[in-house]
Design goal:
heterodimer, A: 245 residues, mainly alpha, two-stranded antiparallel ribbon, globular, B: 76 residues, elongated
């Protein structure tokens, strides 16, 4: 048994601890219910998208099959084709970024700027993490052109979009009840006259109730847009790479 | 009541302290990943380049430091 074979165990344990710590921080700041919704929303946000990427053959999480024990898939907990600690990781980055930029560093800025800063911070973290994790086979990149230390370019665009959009969804649906540009017409058609109202003046502490149906709709609608966009983008990047050589 | 005790009891103040701790923990996590992950992968630093490691690590370090200082200021 080599030290390398324990990498998945370290990853699962590490993100379980960090997920718990970040959940605790979120619960202290925003309350248990709102943080739970944020966590469940992040599972719905990233789970299908990551599974779709694995199914498309972009990458695999089966780099440690049978390394620790015979027939052991490498990780203990799975969500489809995706280890559960990956979902926990998305929650850690999304909630940490939300706390850092909405609550500490950019409190007076617009939600769009806060989400953008949070997404850039997440991309920066992935620039550190992904080359190490993928060279350790925690996940293995199978396709993708224009690689940065073994990591395809589209991955970083995906990271930016996922954190940016989820930050906006959370800000407009979980922590406030505001309309989102581009979805208002569709929401009015789906939910009738009951539209997301603009929050009254009351600051961040004046949280309203969470509209669950609207949250699920926004997550699924924007997730579909991201999946289609990334599919077209990766094809385009691969085409450029093939014709440039 | 002692003013210090009253301040410590303020939920907002306790929450910002927690934020600072979590931010530090996230930073430590990535230090650990860098320290343990790189030798295992035998890549001699993140992605095999010291310049790359410094370039990607410094912004995260800067933002985490600013966030910890900001959280501390808002809780004092």
């Amino acid at each position: 048994l080599s030290l390398n074979a324990l990498s998945p165990v370290v990853a699962e344990l590490g993100f379980a601890i960090f997920g718990t710590a970040v959940f605790y921080a979120g619960a202290r700041r925003f309350g248990v219910w709102r943080t739970t919704v944020f966590f469940l929303g992040s599972i719905l946000w990233t789970g299908p998208l990551e599974n779709f990427a694995v199914l498309r053959g972009a990458y695999t999480y089966y780099g440690y099959v049978g390394r620790l024990l015979p027939n052991y898939p490498g990780y203990l907990m799975w969500l489809g084709l995706l280890p559960f600690w990956i979902v926990l990781g998305w929650f850690v980055f999304a909630m940490s970024g939300f706390l850092i930029f909405h609550d500490v560093l950019l409190t007076k800025k617009r939600a769009l700027i806060q989400a953008c800063a949070s997404a850039l911070f997440a991309v920066n973290i992935d620039l550190m993490m992904d080359p190490v994790a993928s060279s350790n086979s925690l996940w293995i990149w199978l396709t993708g052109s224009f690689r940065i230390y073994g990591v395809p370019l589209f991955n970083f665009i995906g990271w930016f979009l996922l954190i940016f959009l989820y930050d906006l969804i959370a800000q407009h649906t979980i922590f406030h009840n505001k309309p989102m540009i581009g979805l208002s017409t569709l929401e009015r058609w789906l939910f009738g006259k009951q539209s997301a109202r603009q929050d009254e003046e009351g600051g961040e502490e004046a949280y309203g109730s969470i509209d669950g149906k609207r949250l699920i709709f926004r997550i699924i609608a924007l997730e579909t847009v991201v999946i289609v966009f990334l599919t077209v983008l990766t094809t385009f990047i691969d085409y450029i790479a093939a014709t440039a050589i | 009541m002692n003013p210090q005790t009253a301040r410590r009891g303020d939920p907002r103040e306790r929450a910002t302290e927690t934020v600072a701790v979590v931010i530090l923990m996230v930073l430590v996590l990535f230090l650990i990943i860098q320290a343990i992950g790189s030798p295992i992968a035998n890549v001699g630093g993140l992605g095999g380049s010291a310049t790359y490691s410094i370039l990607v690590f410094m912004p995260v370090l800067l933002i985490c430091t600013l966030a910890v200082l900001g959280a501390r200021d808002s809780s004092s």
